[in-house]
Amino acid sequence: MSTLFKDQARCLGQMIDANNEAQAHLYLEQLLLLPVDVQDDIIEDVSQLKNCNSEAIATIIGHHTMIELR
């Protein structure tokens, strides 16, 4: 996972740990330009992690931000 995703994941994890969902949404919207439904999916997936760490969060961000090529 890229260093950039890990840093983003660390910041997002801190916001979710602090139960600051509004700030997490703004972070995802401003930083990654993600639509609200994708933001919700990421936050939901992260909040359900049993072992919440930057690597796991980065994997989730990567999964939801990958563009499908056809």
Q: How is this fold's topology laid out?
A:
Blueprint: H1 3-17, H2 21-32, H3 36-47, H4 54-65
Number of strands: 0
Oligomer, anyone? single chain
Return the structural class.
mainly alpha
From the alpha-carbon coordinates, what is the Rg to the nearest angstrom? 11 Å
* Number of alpha- plus pi-helical segments: 4
Shape call: globular
> Biggest β-sheet, characterized?
none
The residue fraction in helices comes out at: over 70%
Average pLDDT, to the nearest integer? Answer: 82
Quick tags:
mainly alpha
Describe the structure.
It is a single chain. The chain has 70 residues and is mainly alpha-helical. The chain has one domain (3-65). Helix content is 73%, strand content 0%. It contains four helices and no strands. The protein has helices at 3-17, 21-32, 36-47, 54-65. It starts with a helix and ends in a 5-residue tail after the last helix. 17% of the residues are buried. The model has no long low-confidence stretch (mean pLDDT 82).
